[in-house]
Amino acid sequence: MFGVIFCSECGEQIIYPAMHGIKQDLDESSGLVTKDIDPANSERHPKSNREPFISLLIVNSGHVIPLVGRDEFTLGRFDPNQPIQPDVDLNPHGAYQSGISRLHASIRIDQQVTLQDLGSFNGTKINGEEIPANVPHPLSHGDVLALGNLNIQVFIHI
Fold first, then answer.
1. Residue 16, domain extent
2. What pTM value is reported for the model?
């Protein structure tokens, strides 16, 4: 259902969901992949020694956005009239209708993966809990983010 994820730089297949612990069955009531995912079974990128990378599952559409090649990504809405643009444009996923700010949040990949709300108007939640703005919060494999009203499930591939 989710297909295969490929490296945006070299085109190499990164993870095989059916074989490495990501259940392809969705919870019918929520649209989320079930929480019994084993991140230890995910493979590292075959052509690099990079640290963990992140994939974001847009719950409503099932679309997967891989975050590779950097250690920090901003999430928000592209606006041609603004001088600073997000790294991940959520406009194709109903960002405006969902109340996502132009620069809504950032995800940082370091020794720990963290999410920080960037002072967004409609706020950010992790697993249903509102987080205060401008404070990094740890993320775990399978967490569900709500940026405004857009639900995104996080997959951390080690």
1. 5-157
2. 0.72
